[in-house]
Amino acid sequence: MSKKTMDMREYGERIHASGRRLYRIAYCYVKNEQDALDIVGDATYKALKSLDNLREPDAFDSWMTRLVVSTSIDFLRRRGRCVTAPQELLEAAPDEGGLSGLEDKLDLYSALDLLPAEDKAYVILKYFEGKTFAQISGELDVPEATAKTRVYRALKRLRRHYGLEENNG
Amino acid sequence: MDNREIFENIPVPNELDEVIDRAIRRAEKRYSPVKQIFAAAACLALALFTAANTPLYTYAQDVPVIGDVVRVFRIGAGGEITDGQELGAESEGGSVQLTFGEASTAPVYEVERFAAPERVVITMHGVRFTDRDEVIANIEAAEGVAGAYFALVMDDSMMQLVVELERGFDCTVTELADPAGLKLDFTGGVETTDETVWYLRSESMPRGENLAMLCEQYAEFQPHQVRTVSGNFAVVIGSYGSEDDAKTALAQLPEGSPFYAASSKQYEPLGD
Questions:
Q1: How many CB pairs under 8 A join A and B?
Q2: pTM for the full model?
Q3: How far is B14 from chain A (nearest CA, A)?
Q4: B39 or B78, which is more confident?
Q5: Mean per-residue pLDDT for B243-260?
Q6: Alpha-carbon distance B247 to B261, whole Å?
C-alpha cells in the first residue's frame, strides 16, 4: 500500500468519526437528505484528493468542516437558493425585538434559510454547537473579529426580518 | 427544544457511512497502480465478453444496468482522464444511459443542476461524437426529459450536455464502470414550488460564434448557455434568490457588459 493510500485510509477514518456532525452541518444548509449526503461525499472526495494542500495534519477536522461548508455554499448557489422560509418560521416571531436573547426565542434552524449562504456556518457553529468565537475563528480560518461580525450581522438580519413581519401584521 | 438539541436531533441516514466509503474508494482509485492494472485487464476482458454479447455484471435495479455501480448522486464530479471516447446514448422508459465506447471508467465529468428552467448540465472531457443528433434524439425519448441540447464550446475535447427536466421530475445520476457509463434516472412526483429565480443574462442569439465568444469572454463568471423559448440561446450567469442579490452580482461585472438582471420561474423556459 502506498503512503498516499495509507494517508487516505487514515483520514478516511477521521471523516467517518466526524461524519454525523459533517452531515448535520450540510443538512442545515440544504434541508434535504439526499443533497446533504452528496455534499458529504463530495467534500470527502475533494479532501482526500487534495491532502497535499493540508499544511497541518492536526487541522484536518476544521479543514474538513470548511470543505463541507464551501461545498454546501456552492450547491446552494447552483440551485439558485431555491429554499423558501417555512411557515412556522413566520409564526415564530418573537414578542420583543431585542438582539440579545433573540437566539433563544427563534427557531434558528428554520431561520437559517433566510441567511446568505456565507453566514450560515457561523450561526451553526455558534448556536447549534455552542462554540466560542475563538473556536469558530480557528475552525473557519477567519480572524475572531470576522467571526463576531458575521454572527451579529446574521442576528441583525433576522431581527430586521422579524421587525418587518411585525409592522406588516 | 433548544437550538443545540435541534441540531443533535437531525436524523442521520444509515447510508452516510457507505457514502463516505464510496468517496474514499473513488479518491484512492487514481493513486493505486494495482487498480490500474485491473482496469486494463477488465478492459480486455470486456472486449472479449462484449464480442460474445455477454454482460459482465448485471445489477438488479429498476432497469437492469450493465456495469459496476461506482456511485449514485445528484450533483458531483468524477471520472478519469481519457481521450476521444465515443459518446453514445440509449434510453428506456425514464432512464438514459450515456455510453463511452469501450472505456472501462467514465471520462472526467461534472454534473451540475440549475433552475429556470430546471436542468441538469453534464460537462465531459475527452469525448467525441459519433452521431450528435442520435444522442439528442435518444435522450429526448426518455420520460421526464423536456428537451436536450449541447452547448457550443470552443474547446474540442470538452462537451457540455444540457438536459431540461419536465415539471415535477428529478434526475439521479449513476456512474458506472466496466463498461463506463453515466446513467440518468428521471423520477416524477417531485413537489414543485414554482419559485422565482433571478440571474444575469444576455440578449438571445442564434447558436453561433458570438455565443461561444461571449462565454469565453466572461469565463471567470462561470457563464452558461441556455436555450430560449424560441430555440435561440442566451448566456446566463449565476442564480440568485432575489432581485437585490442579482443586482449586486451585476455590479461586479465589468462596466458595459451586455448582461442584465432577469427572473423566471423554476420550470419556465428562458424568454427571448
A1: 134
A2: 0.53
A3: 10
A4: B78
A5: 91
A6: 6
Domains of chain A in sequence order? 1-83 (1.10.1740.10), 85-169 (1.10.10.10)
Residues of B in contact with A107 (CB under 8 A): 6
The residue of chain B with its CA nearest to that of A49 is B27
Across the range A28-54, mean pLDDT stands at 89
For residues B44-57, average pLDDT = 36
Task: Indicate the residue of B22, B77, B240 with minimum beta-carbon distance to A80.
Answer: B240
Q: State the smallest CA–CA distance between residue A143 and chain B in angstroms.
A: 24
Residue ranges and CATH numbers for the domains of chain B are: 7-187 (2.60.40.3500), 196-265 (3.30.70)
**pLDDT (mean) for B16-33:** 77
Q: Are A42 and B23 in contact (CB < 8 Å)? A: yes
Nearest CA in chain A to B111: A78
Most confident of A4-13, A71-80, A94-103, B240-249: B240-249
Q: Check whether B164 has a pLDDT greater than 90.
A: yes
**Helices assigned H by DSSP within chain A:** 3-17, 19-30, 33-49, 60-78, 87-91, 102-105, 108-111, 117-123, 133-140, 144-168
Distance from CA of A98 to the nearest CA of B (A): 18
| ipTM for the predicted complex | 0.72
